[in-house]
C-alpha cells in the first residue's frame, strides 16, 4: 500500500451512502486546536498589524492582553500543527500525478473533477496548503520567539529583531491567505467539512475527488485494516 | 505668557498655572490616521548638551530620578564609571564614559556623553508603534510616551535609531526621557538642565540653542578642536536634544553615538509597503474566494459519483484505473 495514498485508520464502511473514514477523533481534535489557534493568532496579530484593526484587541481584553497572549497561542499552534505534520507529511509528498493534476487549472477552478486525473488521499492543492502552512509556521515561530521580549528580549540584537518582525508580518499575511484558500476550498467542495466534524466522507465524495485513495482502500477489502 | 520656557536656569513661576501642553498641541499620534491640525504652533524647544563642558558628576541623572520619581536598583561596580550600566525603565538618562586615545595627539581623552531620548523630528518609535496614542509628538518637538495607551509590544525599541526605549519588567510599558514635558508645560526647563552645575546642559528654543552651539563651537575651534560641531542629525529630521561634540566628524567614539542615524530601512518597509500591500493581498484573497463562491457553482458530489463508489468498492478490479488513462500514481 502506497503511504501517500492511504493512511492508518482510513477505511470504507458499507451503507447508503457508503462512508469512508478519513480522520480519527484525535486527529480531528488536534485539527480543531490548530484551527482555533490560527484564527485567534490572526485576529490578535492583525490588531497589531494595522491601526485600522487595532479595535480587535477588544476581543482579547485590551492591547496589553493581546500582546501578552499572542505568543502563547503561537506555541499552541506550533505544537498542534507539528503533531499533525508528523502524521500527514508522508501522504503529502509530491507525485507525478500532481503535475498532471495542476496542468488542469481550468477544470480545478471550474469544479470539473471528472476531467482531472485520479489522485490519492491529497491532491496537489491540498499538498500545497500543507507545505505552505508547515513552512510559514516554522518561520513564524522562529521570528516570533525572537521578538518575544518577555522571555527572549535580551537574546538578540535590535537589528535582528527588526528583520524578525518584518519576516513575521510578511509570513503572517501569507499564512492568512493560505488559510482563506484552505477554508474556502473546504466550503466550496461540498461534503468536505464533515471530514473535520465527523471524520468521515461519503463514498461519492471520495470517488469524485480522491478516487485513487478510494480504489486503494477498496482493493484492501472493506473491513477496518487488521494492522 | 510665553508658550514654552526659554531657559532651565531661571526659577519657575510660583503661582499655580494650567498645563500649556496638551492634546490640542499634538502634531503626531501613533497609529492614528487623521489627527486634527493644531490651531497653534508652539515654539520648537531643544536641549543642548555640550560634552566638552561636562564634568561627569551625574547630577543630571540624580535630578532625573528625583523629578520622575523612578527607583533604579543599587548597582554593582564593574570598574567603569557608567552607572547604572544601561538605560532602564528607571533610568531615562545615562552618562556614558569612554576612554579614547586620540590617534593624532596620542592623548587619552575621557569622553562623557549624556545618553537619552533625542526627541527626533521624525521619531522612529512613533512610526513603529501599533497602539493608538501611546506615542505622541507635540508641536514644540517633544516626543512623549503615554503609558496608559502602551501595550508593551516593544515595537518602539525596534523603531528607535538610538536604542533608547526600555520596557518595564513590572508594568510592561515603555519608558524613556520625556524632555520633562510636564515641567515644560508649566514654564520650567528639564530637571537635568536645571541641575547641571557647569551648564553643559542648557535648554531653550531650538533656534537659541543652535546660536549658543555656534558660540561654543567657535570657542572649541579656537582651542584646536578643528572638527568641533553640532550634532543635529538630518537623517531623523533633526533632533530636539542636540550635542556639541569636539569630534563631530566621528560621533561613534562617544559610546557608539550613530554617525548618520535614520529609521532603519527594515522598519520603514515593515511599517510602509508591508502594511499596505499586506492588507491588499489578504483583502484580494478574501474577495477572490467570495467572488468564486458567488459566480461559480459549488463543487457537489453527484448521484453518479455515489454509484461509482458503490461499483468501485464492490469490485475494485473491474473499474478502469484512471478516468483518462493515466498510469497509477508514481513517486517523483
Automatic annotation (TrEMBL), chain A:
The lineage of its organism: Bacteria, Pseudomonadati, Pseudomonadota, Alphaproteobacteria, Hyphomicrobiales. Its cofactor is heme. The chain crosses the membrane at residues 32-49, 69-89, 128-148, 163-188. GO terms for biological process: anaerobic respiration; formate oxidation; respiratory electron transport chain. Residues 22-199 form the Cytochrome b561 bacterial/Ni-hydrogenase domain. GO terms for cellular component: formate dehydrogenase complex; plasma membrane. SUPFAM superfamilies: Transmembrane di-heme cytochromes. It is a multi-pass membrane protein. Keywords: Cell membrane, Electron transport, Heme, Iron, Membrane, Metal-binding, Transmembrane, Transmembrane helix, Transport. Belongs to the formate dehydrogenase gamma subunit family. InterPro entries: Cyt_b561_bac/Ni-Hgenase, Di-haem_cyt_TM, FDH_cytochrome_b556_subunit, Formate_DH_gsu. It is found in: Cell membrane. Pfam families: Ni_hydr_CYTB (PF01292). One of its GO terms (molecular function) is formate dehydrogenase (quinone) activity. This is Formate dehydrogenase subunit gamma.
UniProtKB/TrEMBL annotation, chain B:
Its cofactor is [4Fe-4S] cluster. InterPro entries: 4Fe4S_Fe-S-bd, 4Fe4S_Fe_S_CS, FDH_Electron_Transfer_Unit, Formate_DH_bsu_Proteobacteria, Formate_DH_C_sf, Formate_DH_Fe-S_su, Formate_DH_TM. The keyword Cell inner membrane does not apply. Residues 323-332 have a biased composition (Basic and acidic residues). Binds 4 [4Fe-4S] clusters per subunit. [4Fe-4S] cluster 2 binds at residues 64, 177, 180, 192. Keywords: 4Fe-4S, Cell membrane, Electron transport, Iron, Iron-sulfur, Membrane, Metal-binding, Repeat, Transmembrane, Transport. Residues 45-64, 108-140, 141-170 form the 4Fe-4S ferredoxin-type domain. [4Fe-4S] cluster 1 binds at residues 54, 57, 60, 196. One of its GO terms (biological process) is formate oxidation. This is Formate dehydrogenase (Quinone-dependent) iron-sulfur subunit. Its main location: membrane. [4Fe-4S] cluster 4 binds at residues 129, 150, 153, 156. The keyword Transferase does not apply. [4Fe-4S] cluster 3 binds at residues 117, 120, 125, 160. GO terms for molecular function: 4 iron, 4 sulfur cluster binding; metal ion binding.
